[in-house]
Write a structure and sequence with these properties.
CATH superfamily of the largest domain: Malonyl-Coenzyme A Acyl Carrier Protein, domain 2
Helix content: 40-55%
Distance between the termini: 40 Å
Strand content: 5-15%
Number of strands: 10
Strand order of the largest sheet: 8-7-2-1-9-10
Number of helices: 14
CATH architecture of the largest domain: 3-Layer(aba) Sandwich
Oligomer: single chain
Radius of gyration: 19 Å
Structural class: alpha/beta
Length: about 350
């Protein structure tokens, strides 16, 4: 049973999606319409020079010349959109009590928490994508099963890339090895589907490609987080020493994403803590394309019993520019109804 209704000011936690959530023209309907969002996107594009100009062109194109599943396009755009939507939420007066990013979404969370500047984080995302371009052809496979159930199918090449929910595990590895595992899973009656990724993110196979990544991170300023970031790598709040450690960020693209354990830690800290009495309602805002993280969050027992409201900012699938604006308007109305903002503007740290 849920406890008594919360009576304090509303609290917002941002969920920032990663690889697999992308779709054509994600959030493009907000560009040149929402000034804060537009400025944040342009900040990233401008920081990346010619690469940024190409990203902007392909993002806004009705028929982009590159497939969006190409990590060189998807990763920086997922970062840029998540970061820009986060800035938009701040402008609407929401001061996040926590941020949780999935995969490259963790870089957006770190930037919004002031660990990196938005420009530096964008450059690091592009740097890692260029490095992993040399990795063997790989991918990711979502399996409707627990980690224990997929354990017999793991090996040196195929590993757990993400734990999204108790029965939603993502495997990562070289494409041929994943295809073989998919056949074995099907024979065992376990459902699987490919994730929209041509790279085996969050897999040790990326290790050789990322050897120089530590130096790239070390070359940019890093600060202790000024907002609480729940790390998908550790399933715990990001510590100051972790935020400052170049090795932590260099290893992040090949470490498993512990999204469900991190979400569980976040919700328990904000909803079940003994000192939570009198705290306001919790609103989980998905700041990025698709609604996968919203769907996952709604399955959590603490959310199901009414402990939190889940609000996605964008449509769940590609649509018109009007669909983007309508989804945002509905989200803002839901935030206002929950008591978020009330005319304030939260500080920008990135």
């Amino acid at each position: 049973m849920a406890g008594p209704p919360p009576d304090g000011p509303a609290r917002v936690a941002l969920l920032l999606p990663g690889q697999g959530a992308q779709y054509p023209r994600m959030a493009a309907g907000l560009y040149d319409v929402e000034p804060v969002f537009t400025a944040a996107m342009d900040e990233v594009f401008d920081a990346l020079g010619a690469t940024g100009r190409a990203l902007r062109r392909d993002w806004l194109a009705a028929d982009p010349p590159r497939p969006l599943d190409d990590a060189a396009l998807a990763q920086p755009l997922l970062f840029a959109v998540g970061h820009a939507l986060g800035r938009l939420v701040l402008d609407r007066g929401a001061e996040p009590v926590a941020l949780l990013g999935h995969s490259v979404g963790e870089m957006a969370a770190a930037a919004l928490a002031g660990v990196f500047s938005g420009a530096d984080a964008a450059r690091l995302v592009v740097d890692r994508v260029r490095r992993v371009a040399g990795a063997p052809a790989g991918g990711m496979l979502a399996v409707a099963a627990s980690v224990a159930q997929v354990e017999p199918y793991l090996g040196p090449d195929v590993t757990v890339g993400a734990v999204n929910a108790p029965r939603h595990t993502v495997l990562a590895g070289p494409r041929a090895a994943l295809d073989a595992v998919a056949e074995q899973l099907d024979a065992a009656g376990l459902t699987s589907r490919p994730v929209a990724s041509g790279t085996a993110f969050h897999s040790p196979v990326l290790g050789p490609c990322l050897e120089g990544s530590r130096d790239a991170v070390a070359a940019v300023p890093r600060r202790a987080p000024l907002r609480t970031v729940y790390s998908g790598r550790t399933a715990a709040p990001l510590r100051a020493d972790e935020a400052a450690d170049p090795g932590f960020w260099a290893a992040q693209p090949m470490a498993p994403v512990l999204f469900w354990p991190a979400l569980d830690a976040l919700l328990n800290a904000l909803l079940d803590a003994p000192d939570g009495a009198g705290a306001g309602p919790l609103v989980l805002v998905e700041a990025g394309p698709g609604r996968t993280l919203s769907s996952i969050a709604r399955r959590h027992p603490l959310v199901r019993r009414g402990g939190a409201v889940v609000v996605p900012l964008l449509p769940g699938r590609p649509g018109s520019a009007d669909a983007d604006r309508e989804a945002l308007a509905e989200a803002v109305a839901a935030l206002r109804a929950a008591g978020v903002g009330e005319g304030r503007t939260a500080p920008v740290l990135s």
